[in-house]
Design a protein that fits this description.
The chain is of the alpha+beta class. It has helices spanning 14-17, 66-76, 98-109; strands spanning 24-29, 38-44, 47-53, 86-89, 92-95. Helices cover 21% and strands 22% of the residues.
Amino acid sequence: KEVGQVQFPPQPERGIRYGDLPDERAKTICPLCSMGCELKIDLKRQKILGSKPSDEGAVNEGQACVKGRFLIKDVVHSPRRILKPLVRVNKELEEASWEEALDFVAQRLKKFKGKKIALIASPQVSC
C-alpha cells in the first residue's frame, strides 16, 4: 500500500445491487463497431442486464470501449431498433421477410451493368 493511496471496498455490480441477478452469462462479439471485441453479457430472462469485457478476448485483451461496456443494453433493447427487414414500396416502408428483402436488393442491383460495383454493409449503416 502506497502513501496517499485510497482503497475502496469492492462494490457490487449495479444490477446485483438492485436485485437483478443474472440467470445466464454469455460471451459474444460486440456489434457496435468493427473491432470485434469479446464481451461477457449478463442476462435475465433473455434481457441484457449489463456487459463486461472478456479477459480472454484476443482483440480487446480484457478492455472495452464505453460503447461496448455501457451502451450495448440500451442499443439492443431500444424501442427504435429495427427487428425485421423493411422494403420501400410507393415511398412507404413495409415489413418484409428476409427472403423478400434480399430478392428486392438483388433485383435493384441487376440495374447496374458496369464492370465494377461496391457495397457497404454494416450494422451502423442505414438508408
